[in-house]
Write a structure and sequence with these properties.
Layout lengths: L1 H5 L9 E3 L4 H11 L3 E4 L5 H6 L7 E4 L9 E3 L3 E5 L4 H6 L1 H6 L1 H8 L4 H4 L4 H6 L6 H8 L3 E6 L2 E6 H4 E3 L2 E2 L6 E8 L6 E7 L9 E10 L2 E10 L6 E2 L1 H7 L6 H14 L10 H22 L4
Parallel strand pairs: 1-3, 2-3
Antiparallel strand pairs: 4-5, 5-10, 6-7, 6-10, 8-9, 11-12, 12-13, 13-14
Helix pairs in contact: 6-9, 11-12, 12-13
Length: 298
């Protein structure tokens, strides 16, 4: 263990390397090796954990060259992004920037350019960090995960996908194929805000908001918070409270108070639970304000 901390160039784990050319071949390998295998896409999480011997897979399956996993597709009702698509590709996509600015904002906040040039959307999600920036944005966008296994394909909402820190709904023989996100009405306003100890750090708390207005009244609202519970979470009570109400400062303050009451923060190296509860209130209020300012009128 000590040598790995001193020399991070060393991979002290013996493993068999696989580079399947198709999604079907990758699923076959997962079916064969199950919990003894790890998927490699960007490697920004996996390789670090292998160097520290936090994970010791007997098989490493490289999926970064499978075309079905590395594409951004413009569908009739939404955007589909392959799980092995690099974050930098998403960040630079005019399609994402134009149609899903919330996701663009969130992805741009992840790490450095060097990290985003390697890291993938699927990796950011499957790492299942409660602070994952892309997860919070996609949850507010009502995104769905498409999953493939030996029994075929299935879908799960992002709320169903995350089970806890480092835990997802993926079975050992399944792979995340893509994330599909419905397009928002042109009148919708969105906002993503991240609070960290310093630049490039993981989020101490992050929030994503989608807001639709008509005549100053909230017709739809979605609020997601990260790093405040074992998984990224939707603030359902605050959302329901705002629907049908005029978007006043008082209404936003009340919704932000509800959000701060409904989270389950912990004390850790980044912040105390008390700090997170207070910060969640301020960030939710600010994100609602920004989304309201960006929203058009139907």
């Amino acid at each position: 263990m000590g040598i790995n901390r001193l020399n991070t160039h060393v991979l002290p784990v013996r493993f068999e390397y696989h580079a399947p050319a198709s999604l079907e071949a990758a699923v076959e390998l997962l079916s064969a090796y199950g919990g003894g295998a790890s998927l490699l896409a960007g490697g920004t999480d996996l390789l670090v954990k292998m160097k520290q011997r936090l994970v010791e897979p007997g098989h490493v399956i490289n999926v970064k060259n499978i075309g079905a996993l590395t594409r951004i597709e413009d569908g009739a009702d939404g955007l589909r992004i392959g799980a092995a698509t690099r974050l930098r590709t998403i960040e630079r996509s005019e399609l994402v920037r134009g149609k899903l600015p919330l996701l663009h904002e969130a992805v741009r906040s992840i790490g450095s350019v060097q990290v985003r040039n390697m890291a993938t959307l699927g990796g950011n999600l499957c790492n299942a960090s409660p602070a994952a920036d892309s997860a919070v944005a996609l949850m507010a966008l009502d995104a769905e995960a498409r999953i493939m296994g030996p029994d075929g394909a299935r879908t799960a909402s992002l709320e169903e996908f995350f089970l806890g820190p480092g835990l997802t709904a993926l079975r050992p023989d399944e792979i995340l194929v893509e994330v599909s996100t419905p397009y928002l009405p042109e009148v919708a306003g969105t906002s993503f805000i991240k609070l960290g100890r310093r630049s490039l750090d993981l989020a101490t708390i992050n929030v994503a908001v989608v807001l639709e207005l008509a005549g100053g009244v909230v017709t739809d609202c979605r609020i997601a918070l990260g790093s405040v519970a074992p998984t990224p979470v939707r603030m359902r009570r605050a959302e329901e409270f705002l629907r049908g109400k005029e978007l006043t400062s008082g209404a936003m303050e009340a919704a932000a108070e509800m959000a701060s009451e409904d989270i389950r923060p912990i004390d850790d190296v980044r912040a105390t639970a008390e700090y997170r509860r207070e910060a969640s209130k301020a960030l939710t209020r600010d994100a609602l304000t920004a989304a309201g300012e960006r929203a058009g009128e139907g």
